[in-house]
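User: These chains co-purify. Model them together.
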Amino acid sequence: MTQAATNLSGTSMSKSTSDLMVEMRGVNKWYGDFHVLRDIDFEVKRGERIVICGPSGSGKSTLIRCINHLEEHQQGDIVVGGVPLTQDVKRIEQIRRSVGMVFQHFNLFPHLTVLENCCIAPMWVQKKPRREAEEQAMRYLERVRIAEQAKKYPGQLSGGQQQRVAIARSLCMHPDVMLFDEPTSALDPEMIKEVLDVMVELAEEGMTMLCVTHEMGFAKTVADRVIFMDQGQIIEENAPEPFFNNPQSERTQLFLSQILGH
Amino acid sequence: MIHNQTMIDQRPAPSNTLGPMAWLRANLFSSPLNTLFTLVGLYILYLLVVPTIQWAFINADWIGTTRADCSREGACWVFVNARFTQFIYGLYPRSEIWRANIVFGGFFTLIAWLAIPRLPLKRWVAVFALVGFPVVAYVLLHGGYFDLPRVPTHRWGGLMLTLLLASVGMIGALPIGIVLALGRRSNMPIVKSFCVIFIEFWRGVPLITVLFMASVMLPLFLPSGISVDRLVRALIGLTLFQSAYMAEVIRGGLQAIPKGQEEAAAALGMTYWKRMGLIVLPQALKMMIPGIVNTFISLFKDTTLVMIIGLFDLLGIVQAALSDSNWLGFSLEGYVFAAFVFWIFCFSMSRYSQYLERKLNTGHKR
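Assistant: Joint model of the two components:
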């Protein structure tokens, strides 16, 4: 890929084999006896932005963590970028290289500087030379407006800054799809905006995104579809405008009235 | 309501709260009872320290060659002086001591090189210290190559042997301990149970038993004609024994690393060994420096137990010298000397570990 393509997503010329980025068919998962995911069927097309919401414990995080096999599903099929997810470690690692993930608690590597956090995977997983990895990391750090902190350690940054670094770290691997697991839930209110701004830019550049969040403003602005989950099931799925203005199921109505009502 | 229209300038703290006098007043003489304790404490200290100094320095004999030179009532360092070569090199032949000296020199140079931050080429020096130097040291100490006369291992002894046992034990126990600790947390049942059994076996057996088994029992199991050097057997026993302790220290560190760290590394597509080697272990080892050094120090002191299988480490050779009929009655000097040498090494390790902790601290929790 040419380095001229310095848009945030870096997906400009990806190997497009299928229009479906993520496909889940009849996925079921249990934690011991507890049935966390029940008959999940859904798909994400390339370039789609999807927001998943629902009450806590409804299985939203588990769902997206199944996509890169941080959680194992017990039944059903998951296909990511045309590659079926199996037990095979090599294949799991191949899928993970093409799937970026941003965590609620950032999970930056505290023993490495911001720059090293962004270089370590390109250097050790993609075998990029150090200089190339660093140049690329600086470009992404600039895009998330944190380049001046490159030499600092994560512990010296605020929560919002750390989360932006985490986004840059993921982007450095040129993922085909980005998973966001409640990226703003651990942030102080005044820091949420700086992270959401970066995510909106990313969406506008055409990155495929799956985002578990309670930021309904974000969902209204950028989502192509909103998925509502409760008790391990997908209850409702719709474009944001009808989803918010005219929710079909009672549970969705109840949930929306609770989070938007006051 | 506005409290103060003008900004208040910074003022110096009251002078009676700063400086050594204020410290003394606050910590030693804050109340009558506290003052009493301080004075009693000082008096006890005086009773202990003054006679010690008189014995060890003021009334001590330093120069001479025989016990006749020890006339005064203080310590007789003449004994240590006369036996010094033996304490350092054991029964190593006098004519070949230059070989041991080269190894000593190389050993301390390498350690200093690795410990002093300003010196360059750390990586290559470390590789040489771990790969090249042991070979050089073996060839020099053991001989049998390049016209160097052979010096069998039962003639090695003293501080040289102590340092050899300790450094081989440390360099061996750390990586084996890391592998065992990772294995104990593995999802693979066979690997996991092997590591658990290994660790629990070695931790459950006294080191003396291990050394005895290595020296007495092991030859019984080996086919006749194959014999393993006694020093090598002791080294293997010591290393495996300490690696079990090391494994548990490191496992503690691994458990303290949040699960999110490994998940983030996995989400970036790293393989198991990269997740461990690049992300989890560097953090765990750094966090566990005090525990690792603690294990190192106890290993260093445990080397004295090789005495019971007939190897003469520093303490062993001091004890052997004490039974020399020319020098009967100087056991206190001998033990004080041995204790002092051990203390120097253990204290240096402890200080270095504190320095390392400060240096590697990147001011983070998460």
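Chain B is about 70% helix and 0% strand.
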